[in-house]
Amino acid sequence: MVTALRLWLFFLVFTSSIQAQDLNYIFKSGDDGYQCFRIPAIVKTTKGSLLAFAEARMDGCGDAGNIDLVMKRSEDGGKSWSAMTIVWDDAGNTCGNPSPVVDAKTGNIVLLSTWNLGTDHEAQIIQGTSKDTRRIFVMKSADDGRSWSKAREITSDVKLPEWTWYATGPCNGIQLRSKKYRGRLIVPCDHIEAGTKKYFSHAIYSDDGGEHWKLGGTTPTDQVNECTIAELPGGKLLLNMRNYNSLRIRQTSTSVDGGASWSALVGDTTLTEPVCQASLLWYDHKGRKPFLAFSNPASATSRTKMTVRISYDEGKSWKLNKLLHAGPSAYSNLVVLPNGNLACYFEAGINSPYEGIVFREISFDDFK
């Protein structure tokens, strides 16, 4: 009995060691003076650099308090990364929810983000008892992410007075390619109403490279928030949302007017979720058939099993998938690498999803 127990313990330690080696941490809890890194967002610039953003949480993994917006760059497709740079630090306040989008025309990277007092908690903001509220800001980089403009507030342009909580992303925005709305920058967001306490997904957009932002449409029904967006062939937009009903599946909605309005919600029964953020991406790289990709912790009961799926019929079915990490995992963001492969930038760990944010390149041979 003792021998069997020793063998079992050895197996657990060995398995954990192998799993830990597979986790290529870009940000790891405890590094650079921060207790926790959360909320991944990543984009590829027009020059082929990767910009990986995160919330650097000074005092723990909680959503409130002293939180800075940080970034690392890679110029070799994710093989190596720069030292961490702080994009936005506002003393003890909360700077977070990074949602970057690249303007292909200018090469500028536009970064949407939210802010609140570090002493204000989400529940207080929702109840209207906080000292301040949730505010929205925009920053811009014109040098491939090496430096950033000062955060500029756009709250009055994109948030209604009767909304309390508000979140940009958290994940990348997109630039539209279709003829009618070509060049539009659009960022997925969510909000909560003051009176009803209902929560919805919505979009905001800019038609001048991120200088001015407008409020787009809101989903017609509630119980959805943190969302991700992709443009399908023909210009239709697909919104994929975190959902709170008992089915534990993702909800979807479409827009045919550039994000000004959204259709009735439709549940995707294949995309199970434990109530968590996810990432959606339209892949259209030369030499390969276009497809829709999706990543999330594919479990209805726990934040585990980070999985990437592929659909060749615009999300009607998901025939191929790849399990990236069977253990604890949570938020994620997909990106196309310069070599044409996919990569997933996601929260993961051995004992907790919040041990760090890892980067994983995915070959197309990995999908089954």
Overview of the molecule:
Helices cover 8% and strands 46% of the residues. The chain is built from three helices and 24 strands. The protein has helices at 2-22, 122-127, 155-158, and strands at residues 25-28, 36-44, 50-57, 67-74, 85-88, 94-102, 109-116, 135-141, 152-153, 163-168, 174-175, 185-193, 199-206, 214-218, 224-231, 237-243, 249-255, 266-272, 279-283, 291-297, 304-311, 320-336, 342-348, 356-362. The strands form five sheets. Strands 1-24-23-22-21-20-19 form a seven-stranded antiparallel β-sheet, with no helix packed on it. Strands 10, 11, 12, 13 and 14 form a five-stranded antiparallel β-sheet that branches. Strand 2 (36-44) and strand 3 (50-57) form a beta hairpin.
CATH architecture classification name = 6 Propeller
Tell me the overall shape: globular
How many DSSP E strands?
Answer: 24
Radius of gyration: 20 Å
CATH class: Mainly Beta
Strand percentage, roughly? over 45%
Q: List the helices and strands in order.
A: HEEEEEEEHEEHEEEEEEEEEEEEEEE
What is the domain total for the residues?
1
What is the CATH topology descriptor?
Neuraminidase
Distance between the termini: 40 Å
